[in-house]
Write a structure and sequence with these properties.
ABC_Transporter_SBP, globular, Rossmann fold, ABC_transptr_periplasmic_BD, disordered N terminus, Fe/B12 periplasmic-binding domain-containing protein, alpha/beta, five-stranded mixed sheet, 18% strand
């Protein structure tokens, strides 16, 4: 597990790479005439849009291989006729009754809308935190279908879910799900990782809402969280000082740090921290050597995103590199990581529900950097390394 988790962090830090150069072509998000009583609009995300028309919806998702192309999906109510004019769009019948997810991160989207019961398959059953989904797995209601080269497409065809949700990556092969598409099973690439702010990443839950006809619910819940996030950010901005912070670890002679337009850098900024690399351009990560980070790490008051497993300690971190003992944050014990919610099988809820709870993540970071501002807050995702 510990060998896998550093790779997860690297992927996480690479999220949003080069999105600052990509253009976003938005079709009409809400038309003058629509048969849908409830609609939603996109305020933060740059990677997708939703349009509402007469008896159908159009979801457009930016293709991560090209800044100009978009993947389109026509959402039709059961019995509705497919409209003309979208020859390349995949057809999805809504509301979804069954869905297979290639990543446990998609579980958070369904739980946010109280719809995890539609989940019938996962790429892997190993890394699931959700107690309710784990109960479904134990009851035999959720099947493992494999992923990447181990994807069991024949099994998926037999299951025939209403939708397969994948992780949209720039290296994804477009023909990887050809058999499913030929069988009439739509495949939607979720690319929330391209977003550069926490609220933009969270907003991808609105795609799930459109697929489930739960726009009113998502609007109500999103608005509350958005307001709470902004209030917390304003609170942190009122702090008298901004403590210096470093993030991550030196992994295989490379220290990956969030770029200035990476969503984690935005978290640190909104929490009132002084992050040395916060002004760099790009939404991905910086790949630096230890010597480049060392001068700033020496005097940083806080060190965050240090460990992955709940058993990680200051001692186990020091065992990776004895030079960590020189850091001010190591000496003071002000080392924190997002490993407060890790279950017995090693699944970390930060990667599952953290995306749709940015206000809780931000509150954790403010409590760490400015404990006087949120004295009653109990850490949710983060914890101090013993």
């Amino acid at each position: 597990m510990k060998k896998l988790l550093p790779l997860l962090l690297i992927f996480w830090l690479l999220q949003g790479c080069n999105t600052e150069k990509a253009s976003h072509e938005k079709p009409q998000e809400k038309q003058a005439k629509t048969s849908f009583t409830d609609t939603t609009s996109v305020r933060h995300a740059k990677g997708f849009s939703i349009g509402y028309f007469d008896q159908y919806k159009i979801i457009s998702i930016k293709n991560t291989d090209s800044s100009a192309r978009q993947d389109q999906y026509i959402l039709l109510e059961k019995g509705a006729t497919r409209p003309e004019g979208f020859p390349d769009a995949q057809e999805i019948r809504i509301p979804l009754k069954s869905m297979v997810a290639m990543s446990s991160m998609h579980i958070g989207l369904l739980e946010f809308l109280g719809a995890e019961n539609i989940l019938t398959g996962l790429g892997s059953l190993q890394y699931v935190y959700s107690p309710s989904v784990n109960a479904m797995i134990k009851a035999g209601k959720v099947a493992e279908v494999g992923r990447d080269n181990g994807l069991n497409q024949e099994k998926l065809v037999e299951m025939h879910p209403d939708l397969v949700m994948t992780i949209g990556t720039s290296g994804a092969k477009k023909d990887g799900y050809a058999i499913l598409k030929q069988a009439g099973i739509p495949v939607l690439a979720n690319s929330e990782w391209i977003e550069t702010t926490p609220l933009a990443r969270m907003e991808w839950v609105k795609i799930a809402a459109a697929l489930l006809n739960k726009e009113k619910l998502v609007n109500d819940k999103f608005d509350v969280i958005e307001k709470e996030y902004k209030n917390l950010s304003a609170l942190a901005a009122s702090a008298k000082s901004k403590p210096a912070v470093i993030s991550g670890l030196n992994t295989k002679d490379v220290w990956f740090l969030p770029n200035g337009e990476n969503y984690m850098a935005q978290f640190l900024k909104d929490a009132g921290a002084d992050y040395h690399w916060g002004g760099t351009k790009g939404g991905g990560s910086l790949s630096l050597n230890f010597e480049s980070v060392y001068p700033f790490a020496l005097d940083a008051e806080y060190w965050v995103n240090v460990g992955f497993d709940k058993s990680d300690t200051r001692k186990s971190v020091l065992a990776m590199d004895s030079r960590y003992a020189d850091f001010k944050a190591y000496k003071s014990g002000k080392m924190y990581s997002y490993n407060n919610r890790v279950n017995a099988q090693g699944s970390n809820d930060f990667f599952e529900s953290g995306t749709i709870n940015p206000h809780k993540v931000l509150a954790d970071l403010i409590r760490i950097f400015h404990p006087e501002l949120l004295p009653e807050h109990q850490l949710v995702y983060y914890k101090q390394l013993p």
